[in-house]
Amino acid sequence: MSVRMQRRFVHGLLAGTIMVVFGSVSMAQSNDPAYGVWKLNLEKSKFSPGPAPKELTLTIQAAGPGREVSVSGVTGDGTPVKWGYSGNFDGKVVRVTGDNPDADTVILKRINPNTTRTTYQKSFKRTLVNGINVSADGKTLTVAQQGVNAKKENVKNTLVFDKQ
User: Fold this and answer.
1) Which of 131, 123, 160 lies closest to 147 in space, CA to CA?
2) Which residues lie below 8 Å from residue 140, measured CB to CB, with a gap of 6+?
3) Cα–Cα distance between 112 and 106 in angstroms, integer?
4) Lowest mean pLDDT among 1-10, 76-85, 111-120
């Protein structure tokens, strides 16, 4: 095989490998069971301390190899809630946008296809950790939340969301 043919073969092999890698990332992205709009099911959720929010909606969509999350709703005392973030599952600190009293940054980690962990920080100090799991049927998203909120209260919440 000539040097020219070897180069073409290597370039073709490299291009094919890149297509497979990026194609796999795209397929994994589109198959993420957390993507969609989720509404809080107050009857199935538990809040310690309370009060529970009056309503809460999560919108999760693809953002590169990670996800973009938007949170909106109304707190138990009637205050509007609107915040979010966009990040990858690479362990890097990501800025939280909007008004979240408990966090100004978040770190995302994928545990398995249906489970992720988000670790929130305020001024570089860990506040809340969320274990997020989507049910096998893809209809329920459960957030097990623990830590200390901005009011210095111990938090142990279970938020159950229904897919819309």
Assistant:
1) 131
2) 134, 160, 161, 162, 163
3) 19
4) 1-10
Question: Two tokens at 128?
Answer: 């809340």
Cβ atoms of 35 and 24 closer than 8 Å: no
103, with CB counted inside 10 A (0-12, 13-18, 19+), is buried
CA–CA gap between residue 14 and residue 7 (Å, rounded) = 10
**CA 126/CA 51 separation, integer angstroms:** 22
pLDDT tens per residue, range 40-65 = 999 999 999 999 999 999 999 999 88
CATH number of 33-163: 2.40.128.20
pLDDT for position 24: 41
